[in-house]
Amino acid sequence: MVYGTTLDELMLDVQGMLLDFDMNASLKTLASAYGDRIKYVWGPPKEHAGMRAALIRPDGIVAWTSDSDPDCSELEKAAAQWFGQANLA
C-alpha cells in the first residue's frame, strides 16, 4: 500500500480490489487465488467508516464488507459471484 494514495487512483486499472485494513493473512491468500482479477491492497486508511475489509468490483461498487473479523466464507461467495472461481492450484 502506498500511503497517500486515493481509492480513485487505485481503481485506474479497472480491476477488482480487496481492501484489507488489518493485514489479515487469510484475505491476502484469498485475493492471490484470483490472480489479476482481484488486487489486494492493505494498510491503515485515513477514513474507513468502521470497516475492516471491503471487496470492490471493477466498476467501483462495494460487493462485500466486514466491520469485524472477516468471515472468509462470505467473502468467498461474494468473490465467486463477481469474479468467478478462484485458482486454487
Task: Write a brief structural summary.
This protein has helices spanning 7-10, 25-32, 72-83, and strands at 16-20, 38-42, 53-56, 62-66.
The tally of strands reads 4
Q: Any idea what the CATH architecture is?
A: 3-Layer(aba) Sandwich
CATH topology-level fold name: Glutaredoxin
Total number of domains:
1
**Helix content class:** 25-40%
**CATH hierarchy, class:** Alpha Beta
How would you describe this structure to a colleague?
The protein has helices at 7-10, 25-32, 72-83, and strands at residues 16-20, 38-42, 53-56, 62-66. With 89 residues, the protein is α+β, with helices and mostly antiparallel strands. It has one domain (7-80): Glutaredoxin (3-Layer(aba) Sandwich), CATH 3.40.30.120. This is Alkyl hydroperoxide reductase subunit C/ Thiol specific antioxidant domain-containing protein. It comes from Chryseolinea lacunae.
Main features:
27% helix; alpha+beta; 89 residues; Glutaredoxin; globular; Alkyl hydroperoxide reductase subunit C/ Thiol specific antioxidant domain-containing protein
How is the secondary structure organized here?
Blueprint: H1 7-10, E1 16-20, H2 25-32, E2 38-42, E3 53-56, E4 62-66, H3 72-83
Parallel strand pairs: 1-2
Antiparallel strand pairs: 1-3, 3-4
Protein name: Alkyl hydroperoxide reductase subunit C/ Thiol specific antioxidant domain-containing protein
Pfam families: Rng_hyd_C (PF21274)
